[in-house]
Give the backbone structure.
Amino acid sequence: MTAVKKSSSATAFIEKVRYLDKEGRAKIPLPLLLVFLFQLRGYVAGVVSLTFAEDRTRLLDLFYTSAQQFGLMLVVGLPSLVVLAATTFAAEDVPNWANRLMKIAQPLLLFSLLVDGALIGWLFVDQQGVFSFARAAIIMGWFMTLWYLLKSRQWRFYRHHLATIEANSDS
C-alpha cells in the first residue's frame, strides 16, 4: 500500500512540475485555447465579418445559411465564453468567482459541445447529407474537442488546480 501512495504522490509531483510555471501558477493549456476557438467559432466568424466594410454578411453567408443558425451558434458558444472568462479571471492569490466557476467548467463545456453536436447533425440532415470538406473538418474538430475534454490530464489538472485554490487558501 505504501508503494502505491508513493507512486500516486510522485505522479502528482510530476504533474505539478509539468503544468505549473516557475512562479507556481497554472499554465493555460494550448489545446484548451483551441477548444475555445472551436466552440466560439460563431463569435470568431462574427468578429471576422466586421472586417468586410462593403458587405458584412458575405462571410457569414459562407458558414451559415440563415441568421437563425448564426444566432444559435452564438447561444451554443455562450458557456464556452463564460469558461474562457473564468480562466482569464481565475486568481491564484485571492480566490474569486472564477475559481468557483472552474468547478463546473467541465459540465459547461460538455453541455455546449453536445448542443453543438446536435446543431451539426441538424445542419447535415437539413442539407441532405451533402459532403464538403468544411463540414468534415467541423465534425472532426467536434470529435477532437470531445476527446480532449474527456481525456486530457492537463485540462483536468488545470481546472482542479484553479477550483481548489479556495480550499487551499482557507486552511
